TrEMBL record:
InterPro entries: Ammonium/urea_transptr, Ammonium_transpt, Ammonium_transpt_CS, NH4_transpt_AmtB-like_dom. This is Ammonium transporter. The chain crosses the membrane at residues 28-49, 94-121, 133-154, 187-209, 221-241, 253-273, 285-302, 308-327, 339-366, 372-397. It comes from Mycolicibacterium hassiacum (strain DSM 44199 / CIP 105218 / JCM 12690 / 3849) (Mycobacterium hassiacum). Residues 1-423 form the Ammonium transporter AmtB-like domain. The keyword Membrane applies. One of its GO terms (cellular component) is plasma membrane. Belongs to the ammonia transporter channel (TC 1.A.11.2) family.
């Protein structure tokens, strides 16, 4: 689990390379700094109150369904984090842990999820958002949007509590089994991470407005090898993301590894096929973007699908995201690095696709429509909740000023915000 946590932590610097390569030369450092800044701010906040909001109340008998009021600042002591009890022949960690995974290890693992989620949003506001405002927004947003949603999905809240959650209200609760008849499935973060980040990116892009010259100036990636390197690091780190969410080295973890690989490979090919048909040429940036789309889509579904189902899910994700990235030109919102087209669209598809392709409970496997209804509901709840909380978070930090000046934007945000340039050219 600690190795998995380290892999997920690596994803944020990997994202910095991915986003940095996609940016223009005069904004690459700022783009990378937004990811590294997220590492600093969100890690500190997670230790102070993020973990307690996300998980502590769900493991201490608290009644807080959003995870906001129970056990604030639970990491100030360590006794609860190390408390154990014997369950059969194993030692279970009962206060905020996950099965036999110690709570303190779970803290480290989940901290990295919060960091990468905030960093993902930054791609939608490239080249125009003040760096200080970005850091403040990240701290406010992760508190108002990410931690409550993580608690709702993973920490015993509205979307995960077997007896009090919405699924048991709709489809009933099995007293003998101690579980809802149909439970939502989000194995590693389709709602909490990708729909959350993608919807926040859309809201921020609309509030901030377009970059100077959007629709007229060609925004070409300044360093495609950076993009490919970033995609490689993301794919590598994603095994910690998905496989680590099993919380054990077992057969399910092996299934998750294979499903993650299968969906990602199929998504890359799906994206390249769209480019070949639409544009005449498959591109390196398209391959890298298809990889990310596949990783996003399989994240919530990786423990519920077969490898063949994962191929189908991934291929469709690559096609959908490749088509979706053109919507910003049609509807006039400046999602700079296609966070909406990749993370929101593929995240929605991966979450809803479970209702079709999940082994046993999916519609295509004879499971009926119930799982599909549950998956649609959790996707809608995530979209609405995140949209509202992102607007609130943005207006809380508005007094700091959202955007750099037009002059600073034209000069280059690296120079004006950080007094640096990426390359010293004669």
């Amino acid at each position: 689990m600690l190795t998995a946590a380290a892999l997920v932590l690596l994803m944020t610097p990997g994202l910095a390379f991915f986003y940095g390569g996609l940016s223009r030369q005069k904004s690459v450092l700022n783009m990378m700094m937004m990811s590294f800044g997220s590492l600093g701010v969100i890690s500190v906040i997670y230790v102070l109150w993020g973990y307690s909001m996300s998980f502590a109340s769900g493991h201490t008998g608290g009644s807080d369904i959003l995870g906001i009021f129970d056990n604030p600042f639970s990491l100030f002591g360590v006794s609860q984090l190390l408390e154990t009890q014997e369950v059969g022949e194993e030692t279970a960690y009962v206060i905020g842990g996950f099965g036999t995974v110690p709570a303190i290890v779970w803290v480290g693992f989940q901290l990295t999820f919060a960091v990468i989620t905030v960093a993902l949003i930054s791609g939608a506001v490239a080249e125009r958002m003040k760096f200080g405002t970005w850091l403040a927004f990240g701290g406010v947003w992760v508190t108002l949007a990410y931690f409550p949603l993580a608690h709702m999905v993973w920490g015993g809240g509205l979307l995960s509590d077997a007896e009090r959650g919405f699924a048991s209200w709709i489809f009933g609760y099995d007293e003998e089994a101690g579980a809802a008849n149909v439970a939502p499935i989000d194995f590693a973060g389709g709602t909490v991470v990708h729909i959350n980040a993608g919807m926040a990116a859309l809201v921020l892009a609309l509030l901030l407005g377009k970059r100077v010259g959007f629709g007229k100036t060609p925004y070409r990636p300044h360093n495609i090898p950076f993009v490919m390197l970033g995609a490689a690091l993301l794919w590598f780190g994603w095994f910690g993301f998905n496989v680590g969410s099993e919380g054990a080295a077992d057969a399910t973890a092996g299934l998750v590894w294979v499903n993650t690989t299968a969906a990602t490979a199929a998504a890359m090919l799906g994206w390249l096929l769209v480019e070949r048909i639409r544009d005449g040429k498959p591109t390196s940036v398209g391959a890298a973007s298809g990889i990310v789309a596949g990783l996003v889509a399989i994240t919530p579904a990786c423990g519920a699908l077969s490898p063949i189902g994962s191929l189908i899910l991934g291929a469709i994700a690559g096609v959908l995201s490749a088509l979706a990235i053109t919507l910003k030109y049609k509807y006039g919102y400046d999602d700079s690095l296609d966070v909406v087209g990749v993370h929101l669209v593929a995240g929605l598809w991966g979450t809803i696709g479970i209702g079709l392709l999940a082994v046993d409970t999916g519609l295509f496997y004879g499971g009926g429509i119930q799982q599909l209804v549950v998956q649609v509901v959790i996707a809608v709840i995530a979209v609405v909740f995140t949209g509202i909380m992102t607007v609130i978070s943005a207006f809380i930090v508005k007094p700091l000023g959202w955007r750099v000046s037009t002059e600073d934007e034209e000069t280059g945000i690296d120079e004006t915000e950080h007094a640096e340039t990426a390359y010293e050219l004669a």
